[in-house]
Amino acid sequence: MNSEFIIAVHSLVLLAHKPDGMASSEEIAANVCTHPARVRKVLGFLRKNGYVTTREGSGGGYRLCIDPSDMTLADIYRTMAAGAITPNWCSGNPEMDCMVGSNMQEVMNSVFCGAEKQLESYFQGITIGQMLSRIKACQKT
Amino acid sequence: MNSEFIIAVHSLVLLAHKPDGMASSEEIAANVCTHPARVRKVLGFLRKNGYVTTREGSGGGYRLCIDPSDMTLADIYRTMAAGAITPNWCSGNPEMDCMVGSNMQEVMNSVFCGAEKQLESYFQGITIGQMLSRIKACQKT
DNA sequence: CCAACTGTAACTGGTAATATTACAGTAACC
DNA sequence: GGTTACTGTAATATTACCAGTTACAGTTGG
């Protein structure tokens, strides 16, 4: 899976956890363990999709603008990592004489298309709010 | 997805399609569009898992030794690409003070563990025999 | 012995992913 | 109005991974 998916999810959970729902790219980067520039890039995508608002300038940063229980991992997957499990490497070749070799790409494609749908429906069942609950549950033990 | 998974599936479908169920690495490689050495490596794994038998020496090659309708993509996934969708990149750090940053790895891990299971159950419903049927269906149109 | 294979390991080159740097633009605050 | 603290974005290392390739030892049939 795409690391940008991870960064997006982690950032949103962090924002959901903060009392004021706000944080700067530097603060998020320290928590995620990556570079602030990457965080800005990822959260820029999330802004364009309406999941966070940003404020530039001093005292600025990112703020969650959707209820954490209304945002699922499927939303984030579609935004940040659609097609991530479909391989970029292709076997066979449609020009080929052999029936197997010439049609494998198409069949393989339909298989992974189904796999994507399967994965999305799984992610559909997990919200940012639930992620936060799970984290709290970890903490207690 | 791992390209070795693709090569494995393609090779097995090809073997299932051949009347005598047998082919050399060179023949398979030409059909898959890759190098014979890669095919030998992949089919070596399949041999170790009991899906094909090999014969070295002149006139040798690979032969399917399981009924195509008994072999599912899930079997191949577990052999060739287990953990393929779980990211190798980790956010957060268990040593961290913050509750979110310190527990994110564990929670993210459980999420992807579930995703793997979901994917496997999808692959469980697709056999090599069905793949071959789908290819034949493509050919007709 | 020779030819045709498999089984492996090692090396190469290209490409994708991550980290880093840099700087223009913007807003708060004194 | 200047300074400080941010975002937005592009460009540039740097690293890691992956497919392709080569090479050669081992095996088998003729």
Helix content class of chain A: 55-70%
The total count of strands of chain A amounts to: 3
> Any idea what the CATH architecture of chain A is?
Orthogonal Bundle
Strand content of chain A: 5-15%
Shape of chain A: elongated
Number of domains of chain A: 1
Mean pLDDT of chain A: 97
- Order of H and E elements of chain A: HEHHEEHHH
- Roughly how many Å apart are the termini of chain A? 28 Å
**pLDDT under 50 segments of chain A (min length 5)?**
none
Radius of gyration of chain A, Cα only, in angstroms?
19 Å
Which structural category do the helix and sheet elements of chain A fall into? mainly alpha
- Order of strands, main sheet of chain A, comes to 1-3-2
The CATH H-level homologous superfamily of chain A: Winged helix-like DNA-binding domain superfamily/Winged helix DNA-binding domain
Q: What is the name of the CATH class of chain A?
A: Mainly Alpha
Taking the sheet with the most strands of chain A, its summary is: 3 strands, antiparallel
CATH topology of chain A: Arc Repressor Mutant, subunit A
Most residues in contact, chain pair and counts: A-B, 52 and 52 residues
As an assembly, this protein is: homodimer
